[in-house]
Design a protein that fits this description.
By secondary structure, the protein is an all-alpha fold. Helix content is about 85%, strand content about 0%.
Length: about 200
């Protein structure tokens, strides 16, 4: 019995020694794997941190640009609206002037008027010069005022078109910034020069 006890004890010592060796080996393997996991995790965290910083920087640039460019968008919208109103008023003025001047000249040249011309067969030398000059001045004034009103109307329509184009350019630039397309400095300079 003592012999079997001693044999069991030796067997047990061997098993403990093997278990201890296996435990040490497993402990070292676990430490190595934990070290690898820690390095991988640290690398992933750093990569994600850098990517997030980059995205935040791009977002910040976009937001700052959008805020900075909201004023020009509002400015060009207001300019377009103002030119639209003025074009509307000058088109009304032009139409009213055409009607009034045509009616006035028609009245002056109409039947019973002292400015009524003689028939074509009549002697043109008998027409009073003062009446012809007055009629010529009236027609010239009517055409000149109509021309000025039309020029101002067309000017405001052109400025309306220009302000809408600039507003569209600013909004397109903002959309490109929001996409994060990373416009180069040359592209930005080109857009800014076109806007202002």
């Amino acid at each position: 019995s003592q012999q079997s006890f001693a044999a069991d004890r030796e067997l047990l010592k061997g098993d403990v020694s093997v278990a201890r060796g296996e435990t040490v080996r497993l402990s070292k393997d676990t430490q190595v794997k934990l070290g690898e996991i820690e390095r991988e995790s640290t690398a992933k965290v750093q990569s994600l941190t850098e990517e997030t910083k980059s995205r935040l920087d791009t977002f910040e640039v976009g937001v700052k640009s959008k805020i900075a460019l909201q004023a020009p968008v509002k400015y060009w919208q207001d300019k377009g609206t103002e030119h639209w109103r003025r074009a509307l008023w000058f088109s009304i003025a032009f139409g009213v002037w055409l009607v009034v001047s045509t009616a006035t000249i028609g009245y002056v040249l109409g039947p019973g008027s002292e400015f009524q011309f003689l028939p074509l067969e009549a002697d043109w030398t008998k027409l009073p010069v003062a009446r012809l000059v007055a009629l010529g001045l009236m027609v010239t004034l009517a055409v000149w005022v109509a021309r000025v009103l039309l020029r101002i109307l067309l000017n405001h329509l052109h400025l309306l078109s220009d302000s809408r184009e600039r507003e569209t350019m600013v909004q397109t630039y903002l959309a490109l910034l929001a996409e994060g397309s990373g416009l180069s400095e040359a592209d930005r300079r080109c857009v800014i020069d076109a806007l202002f």
